[in-house]
Amino acid sequence: MSNVKHAIKLNYDTEWEYAPAPESTDHISLKDRYDLFIGGEFVAPKSGVYFDTINPANEKILASVAQAGAADVDRAVKAARGAYENVWSKMKPAERGKFIYRIARIIQERAREFAVIESMDGGKPIRESRDVDVPLAAAHFFYYAGWADKLDYAFPHKTPKPLGVAGQIIPWNFPLLMAAWKIAPALACGNTVVLKPAETTPLTAMKLAEVIQAADLPPGVVNIITGDGSTGASIVDHDGIDKIAFTGSTDVGKIIQRAVAGGDKKYTLELGGKAANIIFDDAPIDQAVEGVVNAIFFNQGHVCCAGSRLLVQESVAEEVVTKLKERMQTLIVGDPMDKNTDIGAINSAAQLERINAYLELGQKEGAAMYQAGGKTPKKGYWCRPTLFTDVSQSHRVVREEIFGPVLAIQTFRTLDEAVTKANNTQYGLSGGVWTDKGAKIFKVGQKIRAGVIWANTFNKFDPTSPFGGYKESGVGREGGLHGLSAYLNLH
Ligand code: ADP
After folding, report:
1. pLDDT above 70 coverage of the chain, percent
2. CB 195 near ligand 1, within 6 Å
3. Is 52 within a domain?
4. Closest-CA residue to 483 (of 208, 164, 268)
5. Which domain range does residue 175 map to?
6. Residue whose CA is closest, atom 14 of ligand 1?
7. Is 232 in the pocket of ligand 1 (CB under 6 A)?
8. How far apart are CA 50 and CA 64, in angstroms?
9. Whose CA is nearest to atom 13 of ligand 1?
């Protein structure tokens, strides 16, 4: 073991590098310009406005996409309403299921193309988009396709009825996966949708529109429109929308909640997080350290349920911090398309600026900052994995969501202290516990006020399990049976 450690150190000190293993982009076809997908066709925006989407790893323009204005949103909502009333809500549920299965299969067939485009447009490592985003997106369509004709069994003694037209607004961290989370249960329940991807990551959603066309879905069942926050606001405000499903920042979530207050639009909100990962002294430390790396550094910390706070039992704190720093030195920051890369590009210049402001703030507040990860490319947006120690509960880097590869470490002595610190946050999306003792897992799991608690693992997702937040992390659940009920009237 000590030899291995030595070898790792030596590699780092001499800046020894892996030979590049880039994923090919030859098989990708991107149009120069993408129109709006409304009523089963790609149509030019009435607004006449387009904007560019760039590759955050090299700042090159990938394509331009349409900026949907209020008139375009209206057109999309009307297409969705027509499809809902005339076709989709009347279709035999088993037939609806067949269409959803078809979408799942085409995503699988085109998995490589989806993974490459996701990494090009969003900056995440190809390993992540290939092994996580795309397979999970297909899995969600498969899972919910299976429920389409079994809703009466899912909700016994009830009469499940669809809600109508769902307006769905998603963020840039898991673009295709979030689209799948939103579209699959909505369709399975008999709703039609208007979906808006984030402005920095619209391309896999437009590819999904091509898949939906290829799957021969009746026109208007799924409409995908691009644009910025103003497009999102037009969706939220539209009278023809029956339900809003939003994933994004807590600030925008609050704006949406205010906008729908008093009306009869249903809504689910999946918002920010500041998850605590708790390591007890009886935990397998090496696995825990690897789990922490997975929880906050992989995917650039662009995960709302990221384990951005680490709570370590005092007696093992030094060992954990030392091992973590060593492991951080071996993380490769760089080209998302390289299969060796652990940490890809930060999604946008604006997000990098936000992260950098927090790095400055943390130091100003008196925290000790440690960074690793070697050289970063000249072009593009990069942030090396960062650790803050000497922090207390009042530090803003401990309290606020940074959405970058930035971890703050605190220590604790007793289980109760760990739980109190973990719960001392406005958020409650997720949490993690590392221990050898099953009883501790249950105790901590019951006491932490968060939607999901991982034990001796982190960031594991499955279409069958519900996901969602307590407190300012959101309202409602997505995934599993809970995710179905969010798209149904149950009487
Ligand atoms: P982030 O901070 O992660 O970028 P945002 O909450 O700003 O998250 O964005 C998430 C999604 O919400 C994006 O698709 C964005 O365009 C959209 N959005 C931003 N502002 C609004 C708004 N006022 N109303 C509705 N949607 C919005």
Report:
1. 97
2. no
3. yes
4. 268
5. 33-271+473-490
6. 198
7. yes
8. 6
9. 198
